[in-house]
């Protein structure tokens, strides 16, 4: 399914590649670690490994179940990434002997709790863009700054749906009862693909409605996420609060117990809602705001490095799609 963006101009052609040199991701922790406690926080750098692969390597080395290793989020495989793990303090001495060609322990410190899934502020990215001339470099920086002001549609990126996008069909067949899936982990993944597909379709329609203004158009009955994390359906559209980024409109990840939109907003949302889905539903921010954008252009190499921060759960590749005004796939960004 195509993703459309707020800047409805011509396409901007450049290349980027998800590999260890040109795609760097650094996790931003939720807060400071205490420096004391019964857990060790490990700041690690990994190359060409999934987070699960890395955790399995640590679990095997320490001879502990993988479930005893805490982490906040999953990081790209085809990249150089840093993130934080937690283990019990009693393994501190064993960690000093750890060596692996694709994993480096950058630092350790004590903390009073294990890291839980979702306990991160976001991620900082540093990505090299190729085939960039002077004019493109200027446009890229301008469009990136515009996304910081007006917001970036918070689509799920191509990574969510499998390399060839075939997971979407499997998910639909499973939900319809046409495909039996025994593996719990796979079942959970396919359910999330099903929910994410509906969300992206809903967001595409809302962006199409907004393109004329090049800003996200609010509708009566929208559900907002406030700065303190509460879901709100105000009686009037809070334009000032929205423009001040105090309230962010949300979209539905369909399922049990999710808060639904009302009025005009619900008319669109209902088209992308499976009210009979038994899995838990949620709401997801329709927009995110890239922060701390830095562009460094090397004219001689036709290369522009763009660095930026995004909140957890959002995709750097979606940010680059919004600048290019076109969709990328896993095949596009894999350099053989």
Q: What report would you give on this structure?
A:
- It is a single chain.
- The chain is α+β, with helices and mostly antiparallel strands.
- Among the domains are: about 30-120, Pseudouridine synthase (2-Layer Sandwich), CATH 3.30.2350.20; about 155-285, TruD, insertion domain (Pseudouridine synthase), CATH 3.30.2340.
- Helix content is about 25%, strand content about 25%.
- It has 8 helices and 14 strands.
- It has helices spanning about 50-60, 90-95, 135-150, 165-175, 185-210, 240-245, 265-270, 315-325, and strands at about 25-30, 40-45, 70, 80-90, 105-110, 120-130, 150-155, 225, 230, 245-255, 280-285, 285-290, 290-300, 305-310.
- α3 crosses α8 (about 315-325) and α4 crosses α5 (about 185-210).
- The longest helix has 27 residues, at about 185-210.
- The model has no long low-confidence stretch (mean pLDDT about 95).
Defining key terms:
single chain, 336 residues, alpha+beta, Pseudouridine synthase, four-stranded antiparallel β-sheet, 8 helices, 27% helix
Quick overview:
With 336 residues, this protein is an alpha+beta fold. It has helices at 51-62, 92-95, 134-150, 167-175, 184-210, 239-243, 263-269, 316-324, and strands at 23-29, 39-47, 70-71, 80-88, 103-111, 120-129, 152-153, 224-226, 231-232, 247-253, 282-285, 287-288, 291-298, 303-311.
Compile the SSE list and pairings.
Layout lengths: L22 E7 L9 E9 L3 H12 L7 E2 L8 E9 L3 H4 L7 E9 L8 E10 L4 H17 L1 E2 L13 H9 L8 H27 L13 E3 L4 E2 L6 H5 L3 E7 L9 H7 L12 E4 L1 E2 L2 E8 L4 E9 L4 H9 L12
Helix pairs in contact: 3-8, 4-5
């Amino acid at each position: 399914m195509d993703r459309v963006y707020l800047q409805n101009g011509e396409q901007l052609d450049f290349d980027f590649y998800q590999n260890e040199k040109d795609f760097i991701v650094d996790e931003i922790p939720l807060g400071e670690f205490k420096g004391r406690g019964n857990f060790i926080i490990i700041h690690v750098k990994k190359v060409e490994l999934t987070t699960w692969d890395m955790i399995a390597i640590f679990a095997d080395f320490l001879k502990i179940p993988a479930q005893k290793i805490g982490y906040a989020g999953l990081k790209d495989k085809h990249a150089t990434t840093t993130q934080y793990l937690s283990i019990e303090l009693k393994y501190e001495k064993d960690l000093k002997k750890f060596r692996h060609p694709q994993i480096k322990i950058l630092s350790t410190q004590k903390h009073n709790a294990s890291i839980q899934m979702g306990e991160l502020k976001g991620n900082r990215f540093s990505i090299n863009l190729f085939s960039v001339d002077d004019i493109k470099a200027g446009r890229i920086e301008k469009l990136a700054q515009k996304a910081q002001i007006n917001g970036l549609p918070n689509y799920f990126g191509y990574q969510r749906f499998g390399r060839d996008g075939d997971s979407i069909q499997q998910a639909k067949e499973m939900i319809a009862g046409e495909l039996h899936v025994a593996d719990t982990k796979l079942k959970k993944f396919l359910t999330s693909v099903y929910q994410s597909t509906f969300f992206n379709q809903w967001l595409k329609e809302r962006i199409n409605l907004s393109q004329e203004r090049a800003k996200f158009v609010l509708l009566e009955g929208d559900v907002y996420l406030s700065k303190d994390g509460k879901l709100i359906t105000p009686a009037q559209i809070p334009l000032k609060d929205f423009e001040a980024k105090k309230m962010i409109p949300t979209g539905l990840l369909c399922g049990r117990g999710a808060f639904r939109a009302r009025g005009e907003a619900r008319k669109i949302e209902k088209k992308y809602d499976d009210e009979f889905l038994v899995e838990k539903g949620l709401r997801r921010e329709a927009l995110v705001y890239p922060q701390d954008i830095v562009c460094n252009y090397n004219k001689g190499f036709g290369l522009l490095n763009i660095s930026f921060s995004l909140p957890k759960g959002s995709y750097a590749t979606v940010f680059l799609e919004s600048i290019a005004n076109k969709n990328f796939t896993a095949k596009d960004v894999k350099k053989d």
